[in-house]
Amino acid sequence: MCDSTALSPMVPNEKSSCFHSATGGRRLGEKYKRGESRLLHCTAIQRGVSESLPSQRELTEPYWFTMETEKENTTQTAEEMTDRDLSEQIKRVTKESHIRAENTELMLSFQKGQVTLPQFKLLLCSLYEVYKALEEEMDRNCHHPSVAPIYFPAELARLEAVEKDLAYFYGPDWREKVVVPAATKRYCHRLRQIGKENPEFLVAHAYTRYLGDLSGGQVLGRIAQKSMGLRSSEGLSFFAFPGVSSPNRFKQLYRSRMNSVELTEEERNGVLEEAVRAFELNIQVFEDLQKMLLSAPKNKLQTSSTPVKMLQIPGAIIQSSPLFRALLGLFVAVATVGIGIYAF
Asked: Which residues cross the membrane (predicted)?
């Protein structure tokens, strides 16, 4: 387990979130290899990530932001991003899979604003298993030179939030009621496998999941809260990122760190292949969840003290507001309930 409470020499006598030093890639890995395992932190999140990051670049689509590279590099704008940037390469190789994922029956239900409580609960069950595997492997490999630069447990970890939501919907014995399809088990097995054999591949899974969650979670959380009649944020902890004050700027930092990871050509190709695999695994989960919903008795999936409602946005609002439809489609497309669709 990595020490996420170390004091930063840049901010004497001050504890902060788990931001590492801006020395990602192999250089950071070499420090860990020499035994300097202390993580360096800064108070960037509380201060809006960093005074050195762009403060006015707020574009409509989440992906296109300027990024600050490591401090010895030149700041890149979106227009200056190159084909060698790992984030750009992942975007390109997963384009077809991204479209396929958006057009699964489950995703279309979200885009229409019509998701049942049983669907939502089953998604949470799968999210629990996936994040348990992902975050345990990230923790175990947090000193790996490819993982360390993108390791942000204080800001991004989802497992505890999902557990809280499951307890709300299923009760204190929720662990006995968790049901997941075979596709979810295959997904978790793959995460465990690469954590042991190819830790650099975790970069692909962390990117596709966490940035997707961060991109659309807040909007979808508000929609779910209103539509399902939930009190306050109960049952919606998954959508909240209390450690991230500016999602857009955090994503800039995350992409910068990820693009700084030094990989051999073979490793880079492996990460790109793994990004495609991540989408395929998620598509299989979507399809299996839908099959479970169609085949299982309704009373088995609807066991809850919470009234069963449709996660449905009033049709009048959708029909009367083209802008609302466009925004809803965008947020759903990039991050529907955090199930692995990352922000472009």
From this structure: 323-343
* 115 phi-psi bin (left φ>0, alpha ψ -120 to 50, beta other): beta
With a CB cutoff of 8 Å and minimum separation 6, the contacts of 167 are 174
Cα angle at 317 between 311 and 318, to 5 degrees? 75
User: What residue spans of 18-158 are helical by DSSP H?
Assistant: 25-33, 86-93, 95-102, 105-111, 117-140, 153-156
One-letter amino acid at 103 equals N
- Does residue 304 contact residue 169 with C-beta atoms inside 8 Å? yes
Least Cα distance to 118 among 289, 318, 241, 340 occurs for 289
Beta carbons of 330 and 322 less than 8 angstroms apart = no
Q: Which tens digit of pLDDT belongs to each residue from 125-146?
A: 999 999 999 999 999 999 999 9
Cα distances (angstroms) measured from residue 4 to each of 119, 260, 318: 35, 21, 44
Annotated domain spans of the chain: 55-335
- What would be the CATH architecture of the domain defined by 55-335? Up-down Bundle (1.20)
Query: To which residue do tokens 């066991």 refer?
Result: 303
Task: Report the 10 Å Cβ neighbour count for 320.
Answer: 10
Question: For residue 161, which of 90, 237, 102 has the smallest C-alpha distance?
Answer: 237
